[in-house]
Design a protein that fits this description.
The complex is a heterotrimer of chains A (84), B (247) and C (459). Chain A is α+β, with helices and mostly antiparallel strands and 84 residues long. Chain A is built from 2 helices and 6 strands; from the N terminus they run ββαβββαβ. In chain A, strands 1-6-2-3-4-5 form a 6-stranded antiparallel beta sheet. The longest helix of chain A is centred in the middle third of the chain and has 9 residues. Chain B starts with 11 loop residues before the first strand and ends with a helix. In chain B, 53% of the residues are buried. Classes of the chains: A alpha+beta (84), B alpha/beta (247), C mainly alpha (459). Chains B and C meet through α3, β6, α5, α7 and α8 of B and α1, α2, β1 and α5 of C. The structure holds guanosine-5'-triphosphate and magnesium ion.
């Protein structure tokens, strides 16, 4: 099974969180936002500069930098679809 | 100064919740004040207080900065954590975004660990309705064990019910019985053990289970606060309040 | 219970807690979050019904435009320019009207004083000092601010601000700073002290400090109208050209923010970039009427309060400084004389630099101080907005002077209130001193550079 970093998830795709690799406060923040294993996350859009990417996490739209995104390992589960 | 609920005229009601859920809007609607609101998370970064009268009772309301968790680290979130954990509000309203309930539940569950007199205010109901989201309010209240009041603060919907509910909670006519999350057995055992020790140490107003959880989770920033509770300073604060409130 | 025994026991409990945490493998947060969200998911599944199709498509559509690769930045610039232009164009007439009324009243006050043999000092302090400063602040500051802030608040209520932060984060990251700094800059437009307090939303202390130290490069309520005025003087009107000049100067402030952040994060505030997680709330249609009225009233109150609490006393004090003579020259004149070489080197003059220094309590009073300095030592006694150009030209001003004053205004040291707020928020004198020193250095060197270049090109 191939795992991706969240930052590699193409816009429009959904993935399921397998593990969070971040440490310290970053890890805590990601957990607070609901990124626990099993959570479905959808990449919704890139910013104008391409870097932070906005993800749909438990109904909220949250922008993460690729540094944070790369610490979250996901298993892709679906290809492009509506923004939910 | 506003950090400590013990210095405010009682009853004190705290408004907490995730960022951008409409706490300040609700605060304004209830108190008639003009706290700044804005459609972005982090607009409020300091406590604001105001009051409203309901049924012959003057209630002090404290608008807190939004927070995702009581275990987080930014200064504005620490203000909220300190107020909820050590300010001893008589009741806490957790303002919840009805369009995004699942994510907001994280904070409710945490706050229910700290305070028992919790009322959930399901705000932004107008937006939820517009998006076709339907929420079974009685079922939610049952599951959480606390009163749930649907509202749309911007239009003034649900304010009376909220005030009435708070009134009853403050008067002790409703006893919220929060049903917080139970963690895995290992963690629960450790928390229970430590909480028992803390219960011996600390005075009224400090929730041993919550403090135990924080300490085990390695959140050391609350230690100075706990220390003041164990030093007996808190009793002074207590008499101070009693002196001021009872004429 | 003994006072001494308790903390010792607490110590014991703390070490027990630490051991518990270790025994559990140090991932206590994970366990908590996992348990909470498992319960939350189950609960939400039971009580929430979400329609399968996504309503609120306009949300996504707006984001497609505002965050698009091609249009994101142009739209940002366009909105910025448009807001400035609307402010300039809209404030022009009311400002002149107010100024005319105030001038008329001043004439009457002066006549009254003359008729009732009021001592010149009293007349000077009250009319030339307090009255002129207060009415200047009201006439020049009030109309633009009562237009700018409602516009800004509309964008804020719509939910545009987080999108700006979203789009700009890449650049802030490159400077070693945090994208939320864009939000704190937005708050700085209202007041730098508020902007500094808003820095609390940045979790990492290092990036918070960067945002705190650079907030002053965002022109606040007290400086903004001066920029507008100078831009109108410079371009000879309040059209799009003036708006473009203002936008340019504001962007210069942004560039300074970026550069100083870059340098700070590579010198005294070195460190790894911390985490960035910014929630983008749904767009919400603003409540037009209420927002406009509320913001306009709010700002009116702010400006009026500042006029009374700061401008009035400062006006009296500065009048005394400008009219107390010693050796044939006023004290202000002496100060200006000392500062003149420095002023000339950076394309200003001694009076302008003195005005900035004496304007430390509040940026609103910089221009009134300057005028008082010029008037007290010149032949003209009273002045409407229309005569301003003549007065400044008679003092040797040219386009470069106006431009430099705008640049200096945007880049110079924060006002006293902001400095106090920085002291309170950082709890450190060292950072507060730096917060004043860095902008001073930046403002001086930028003005120096433009002046030298301009003089080299135009000998
Ligand atoms: N449609 C709708 N919008 C609301 C309602 N309540 C608040 N809002 C809007 O939600 C946004 C956020 O409101 P605030 O009151 O600033 O939120 P807050 O919880 O105080 O936010 P922070 O201070 O950042 O934590 C504003 O744009 C409000 O106008 C509501 O009941 N319905
Ligand atoms: Mg708020």
């Amino acid at each position: 099974m191939t795992l991706f970093g969240l930052h590699e998830l193409p816009v429009g795709c959904t993935g399921e969180v397998v593990a969070v690799r971040a440490t310290g406060p970053t890890r805590r923040r990601l957990l607070d936002l609901g990124l626990v294993p099993g959570t479905r996350v959808k990449a919704v859009r890139k910013s104008a500069a391409g870097d932070p990417v906005a993800f749909r996490i438990r109904g909220a739209l949250v922008a993460l930098r690729r540094e944070e995104g790369s610490t979250v390992l996901v298993r892709p589960i679906s290809m492009p679809g509506g923004d939910r | 100064m506003t950090r400590d609920g013990t210095e405010l005229p009682r009853p004190v009601v705290a408004l907490a919740g995730n960022p951008n859920t409409g706490k300040s809007t609700l605060f304004n609607a209830l108190t008639g004040l003009k706290q700044h609101t804005g459609n972005w998370p982090g607009k409020t970064v300091a406590c604001a207080r105001g009051w409203y009268r309901y049924n012959g009772q003057t209630v002090t309301l404290v608008d807190l900065p939004g927070t995702y968790s009581l275990l987080s680290d930014s200064p504005e979130e620490r203000i909220t954590r300190d107020f909820l954990c050590f300010g001893r509000p008589d009741a806490t309203v957790v303002v919840v975004d009805a369009t995004c309930l699942e994510r907001n539940l994280n904070l409710i569950f945490q706050i229910m660990e700290v305070n028992t007199r919790v009322v959930a205010c399901l705000n932004l109901m107008d937006e939820a309705r517009r998006r076709g989201i339907r929420i079974d309010v009685p079922a939610l209240a049952r599951e959480l064990g606390v009163p749930v009041v649907p509202a749309a603060a911007r239009r003034g919907e649900g304010l009376t019910l909220l005030k009435e509910t708070l009134h009853r909670v403050i008067e002790g006519r409703i006893h919220p019985a929060p049903r917080p999350v139970s963690y895995d057995p290992e963690l629960e055992a450790a928390v229970a053990e430590l909480a028992a020790d803390l219960a011996v140490l600390s005075r009224e107003g400090l929730n041993p289970r919550w403090v135990a959880l924080c300490l085990i989770a390695g959140d050391e920033s609350i230690i100075p606060k706990i220390r003041t509770f164990c030093n007996g300073k808190e009793t002074q604060g207590d008499t101070h309040v009693r002196n001021r409130v009872t004429p | 219970m003994s006072e001494i025994g308790l903390p010792l026991d607490l110590h014991f409990v703390l070490s027990r807690a630490r051991k518990c945490g270790e025994r559990l493998g140090g991932d206590v947060h994970d366990r908590i979050a996992a348990a909470v969200y498992k319960r939350a998911e189950m609960l939400a599944a039971r009580v929430v019904q979400t329609p399968s199709e996504r309503a609120g498509e306009w949300d996504a559509r707006l984001d497609d435009i505002f965050t698009s690769r091609a249009l994101g930045y142009p739209i940002m610039l366009l909105l910025l320019g448009m807001v400035f232009w609307l402010t300039l164009a809209g404030a022009n007439v009311p400002s002149e009207l107010l100024a005319a009324v105030f001038l008329d009243v001043e004439g009457r006050l002066t006549a009254f004083c003359a008729a009732h043999a009021v001592p010149p000092v009293v007349h000077g302090i009250l009319v030339e000092g307090v009255y002129r400063t207060v009415t200047w602040v009201v006439a020049v500051m009030l109309p633009p601010m009562a237009i700018f802030f409602p516009l800004f608040t509309l964008l804020e209520d719509l939910g545009y601000l987080p999108r700006v932060a979203f789009n700009l984060d890449r650049f802030f990251k490159a400077a070693g700073a945090h994208g939320k700094q864009a939000l704190t800059m937005g708050m700085g437009l209202g007041c730098n002290a508020a902007g500094v307090v808003a820095c609390r939303i940045i979790e990492s202390p290092r990036e918070r400090l960067v945002a705190t130290l650079t907030n002053v490069f965002t022109p606040c309520n007290g400086r903004f109208p001066t920029l507008l005025l100078l831009a109108s003087l410079l371009t000879g009107g309040s059209g799009p050209a003036a708006a473009a000049v203002v936008a340019g100067v504001v962007l210069l402030g942004v560039a300074a923010t970026w550069t100083v952040s870059f340098v700070l994060t590579r010198s005294c505030l070195r460190g790894l970039p911390s985490s960035f997680a910014l929630e983008l709330p749904p767009y919400r249609p603003p409540q037009w009427g209420r927002v406009i009225v509320r913001a306009a009233c709010d700002r009116t109150l702010v400006v009026l309060r500042r006029a009374v609490t700061v401008a009035a006393p400062a006006g009296a004090a500065v009048w005394l400084v400008a009219n107390t003579h010693w050796g044939g020259v006023s004290l202000l004149g002496h100060l200006a004389g000392v500062l003149d070489p420095l002023g000339r080197a950076i394309g200003l003059d001694g009076f302008i630099v003195a005005a900035f220094l004496l304007g430390l309590p509040a940026n609103e009073i910089v221009f009134p101080i300057l005028l008082m300095g010029y008037l007290a030592t010149g032949s003209m006694v009273e002045i409407g907005l229309g005569d301003l150009r003549t007065l400044l030209l008679s003092r040797g001003w040219n386009g470069l002077t106006a431009l430099n004053m705008m640049v200096f205004s945007v880049l110079h040291f924060p006002c006293a209130t902001t400095l106090l707020t920085i002291l309170k928020e950082t709890g450190s004198c060292r950072w507060t001193v730096l917060a004043a020193a860095i902008p001073t250095l930046v403002a001086t060197s930028v003005c120096f550079a433009t002046t030298q270049v301009a003089r080299a090109l135009n000998p």
